What does this fold into?
Amino acid sequence: MTNKKYAFYILIFSICVFLTGCEKETPNSRWSMLKKVDPAPISLYTETAAGQEELLQGIKEETSMMPSIYDVAVIKGKKDTLVAYKVKQMARFKMKRIEKELTEKLKSKYPDEKFTVSSDFKIFLETIRLWDKTQEPDFSKEKAEKRLKEIIKLNNELT
It folds into this structure.
């Protein structure tokens, strides 16, 4: 192969790499398997108590403070609060203990809340998908609450 052909192929390859790097950002659920997504905690009902945002941020921070947890998604419905998280690879042997500790910690700090805590990756993915859907303007709060209940039911069936 001549130097001109080689340079041409390198140029084409470089352009392709550059254009794929400029691709439009995709929803979080597509990337949640590969990297830390870190979605903001959300409440499905805005007409609830005034300190709702601080409460949800506090729940997320309490969960994130545990050293073996590296990504957290928090969604609050009318009655239930779903806390889904990913565990670092080397801590996967202690997942049940981590889940138990986190549940006790959250219930003691926020006794009025009803928590569903899950380290299951499928539950985390479904939570991120719900989070993505709630960002769409035409996705209703009723659909979101129904989907949240389905995810919680799925989590209860897994355990």
Q: What stands out?
A: The first strand starts at residue 42 and ends at 43. The chain is about 50% helix and 15% strand. The radius of gyration is 20 Å.
